[in-house]
Amino acid sequence: MLHDDPPDDTAAKLTPPPKLPPPADVKLIQRITIGNFAQVWRGSLMDSQGSIISVVAKMYSQRDFEAMNKETHAYRLLSCHQLDNIAPLHYGTFTMPDDSWGAVILSDAGEASHCYSWDEAELSSEELRTVWKYANALHSIGLHHHDLEPRNVAKDRDGVLRILDFERSSLDRLCPCGELERLGHAFDELMEWR
């Protein structure tokens, strides 16, 4: 099986997130985008010490709960393997009591590129190496992104990159691996980066 194609039973392997009450202190400020699966909002959250944290809320309708569950599972897996630096921090996932919609609350990782090709993204060789290192780390724990494009890489004010949008991801310990081969080839065509 190629890793480009998510296995049909991926959803069966993922357990739904527990039903948690919505965080009372999340305030949505500005809609960032409407994606294929979720509306993405920038907001704030008050932590237990009373500090305000910038967050992103990805809001899913019930029909997209499978994508929400994949996203949640990916963040939990990254945290379990102490790879929190690769993606935004996951503060929680919840659904409304009537299951009409749910949300994934993440740290604000900065601005995502709006580019659909690596050439347009104009990343430096160092940034390409970082994305490559992150992609390899994902695969080392059996997590395959399946949509690793520049639009799914964010950069914060300090220039730190994070991978976003794990809604199409799948788990598979085998790695032949088409996703990494395509990524390496795309980077090779841009510049000397290795």
From TrEMBL:
One of its GO terms (molecular function) is ATP binding. It comes from the Eukaryota. InterPro entries: Kinase-like_dom_sf (IPR011009), Prot_kinase_dom (IPR000719). Residues 1-22 are annotated as: Disordered. Residues 26-194 form the Protein kinase domain. This is Protein kinase domain-containing protein. It comes from Armillaria gallica.
